[in-house]
């Protein structure tokens, strides 16, 4: 997001990068090379004239990777290059990067918190803790015979996340907490006057959410998985009515949210909250932790300032941010990624919602912190009687946490079943493709 210029098209980004280093290239040759590189990371040529805000987070990451590959470098430093990408695209990107290393004699320094991915694609590994390299060696040796205590703790956490857990099924006679019926979210890409005149091109419609019908039951954790750009985040924003759907119904607690006026919608939104992927981006850097968590209570008029402070301190203690007085006064920049995500969870829970929509809440965290945050979310679910819609591209996190999984592709739910059935008897070819592409730490160790 921060890498790309919001006022430049994707094509302009590519041309600027190429022509700055190779000014002798004609624009035609530069464009051909850029399009070929974009297509290598699964960005079609039809997106050439679009801007970064028209791309999903994962697709913006693909553009950033394409820009790094454009100049045929000798060394690629890849700092968490696939954090926001789904397993299939991650596999494609890493296979392409490692193929380039072999074919062009390139070096790749891959910085990652994903041990399974490192085990699958790297030759050697260096484990870093508190600014020091605490262990280094051949990947297979370090993963099977770790010598340092910190390495062992990382491996234990990663293996714990990739272990299957029994799922609870919703009772047959319980009405759903959330019911989506034929939900659609379509966007029109308008062609410019010049494009219409010369190419006779017509406006194109992107079906981000395409006729989805889905039920989410009280106390359930429903996982929503699929590749970046498939419409997962758009679906979550449509449920919350942050964007109004093109068509269909969103029934929450028996009310159709699509027909509610804004004042009534705010009251309903208190009952459903969201935890975002990047906690740093969703916390106001000028507000203290205490102010950020207090804000929803004051907006919904649920407590006086004095009562709110007491409730916030209790919530900070509950999410493990102690000593409470210290964290209450801190700013987001004073916290680690895991601590920031705990603040985001505390802020989401402070209004005592019924439904929590979690959009990739642990994808930016390392294995040990992931495990801590996910265990915390399970504890809070039991304590606050929560229902989760858990959006993720990490299939092993979904298996660890979710009761059922819905697989989304190109705006549609292509498969929906219990977590066990999805992993053992996947029916749809796309689901099978996702499972095959997901790196498994046990495979690397075995």
Account of the 3D structure:
45% of the residues lie in helices and 20% in strands. The chain is of the alpha/beta class. It folds into two domains: 10-161, P-loop containing nucleotide triphosphate hydrolases (Rossmann fold, 3-Layer(aba) Sandwich); 178-445, Rossmann fold (3-Layer(aba) Sandwich), CATH 3.40.50. A six-stranded mixed β-sheet has the order 10-11-12-7-13-14, with helices on both faces. Strands 6-5-8-9 form a four-stranded antiparallel β-sheet. Helix 16 links the parallel strand 11 (355-359) and strand 12. Helix 1 (10-21) packs across helix 2 (27-40), helix 4 (87-104) packs across helix 19 (429-437) and helix 12 crosses helix 13 (305-318). It is globular, with a radius of gyration of 23 Å.
Rg of Cα set: 23 Å
**Overall SS class:** alpha/beta
CATH class of the largest domain: Alpha Beta
Tell me roughly what share of residues is in helical segments: 40-55%
Q: Averaging pLDDT over every residue, what do you get?
A: 88
CATH architect. name of the largest domain? 3-Layer(aba) Sandwich
* Order of strands in the sheet with most strands: 10-11-12-7-13-14
Parts with pLDDT < 50 across at least 5 consecutive residues? none
Distance linking N and C termini: 37 Å
The CATH superfamily of the largest domain is identified as P-loop containing nucleotide triphosphate hydrolases
Number of helices: 20
Residue fraction in strands: 15-25%
CATH domain topology of the largest domain = Rossmann fold
């Amino acid at each position: 997001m921060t890498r790309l210029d919001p006022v430049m098209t994707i094509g302009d980004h590519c041309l600027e990068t190429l022509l700055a280093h190779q000014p002798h290239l004609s624009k035609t040759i530069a464009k051909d090379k850029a399009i070929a590189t974009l297509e290598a990371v699964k960005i079609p040529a039809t997106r050439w004239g679009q801007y970064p805000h028209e791309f999903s987070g994962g697709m913006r990451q693909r553009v950033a990777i394409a820009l790094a590959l454009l100049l045929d470098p000798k060394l690629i430093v890849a700092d968490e290059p696939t954090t926001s990408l789904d397993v299939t695209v991650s596999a494609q990107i890493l296979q392409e990067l490692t193929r380039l290393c072999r074919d062009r004699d390139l070096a790749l320094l891959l910085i990652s918190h994903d041990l399974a991915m490192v085990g699958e694609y790297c030759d050697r590994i260096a484990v870093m803790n508190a600014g020091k390299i605490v262990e280094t060696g051949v990947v297979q040796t370090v993963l099977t015979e770790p010598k340092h205590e910190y390495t062992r703790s990382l491996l234990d956490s990663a293996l714990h996340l990739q272990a299957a857990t029994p799922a609870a099924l919703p009772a047959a006679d319980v009405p759903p907490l959330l019911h989506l019926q034929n939900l659609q979210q379509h966007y029109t890409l308008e062609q410019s006057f010049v494009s219409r005149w010369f190419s006779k091109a017509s406006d194109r419609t992107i079906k981000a959410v395409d006729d989805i019908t889905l039920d989410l039951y009280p106390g359930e954790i429903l996982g929503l998985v699929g590749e970046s750009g498939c419409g997962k985040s758009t679906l979550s924003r449509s449920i919350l009515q942050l964007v109004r759907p093109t068509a269909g119904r969103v029934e929450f607690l028996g009310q159709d949210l699509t027909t509610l006026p804004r004042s009534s919608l705010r009251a309903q939104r208190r009952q459903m909250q969201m935890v975002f992927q990047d906690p740093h981006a969703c916390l106001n850097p000028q507000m203290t932790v205490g102010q950020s968590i207090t804000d929803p209570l004051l907006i919904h008029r649920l407590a006086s300032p004095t009562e709110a402070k007491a409730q916030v301190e209790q919530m900070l203690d509950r999410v493990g941010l102690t000593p409470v007085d210290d964290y209450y006064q801190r700013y987001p920049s004073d916290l680690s990624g895991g601590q920031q995500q705990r603040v985001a969870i505390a802020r989401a829970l402070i209004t005592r919602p019924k439904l929590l929509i979690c959009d990739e809440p642990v994808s930016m965290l390392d294995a040990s912190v992931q495990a801590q945050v996910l265990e915390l979310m399970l504890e809070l679910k039991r304590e606050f009687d929560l229902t989760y819609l858990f959006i993720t591209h990490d299939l092993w996190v979904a298996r660890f946490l979710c009761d059922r999984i819905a697989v989304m592709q190109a705006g549609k739910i292509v498969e929906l079943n219990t977590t066990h059935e999805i992993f053992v008897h996947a029916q749809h070819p796309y689901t099978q493709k996702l499972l095959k592409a997901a790196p498994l730490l046990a495979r690397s160790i075995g």
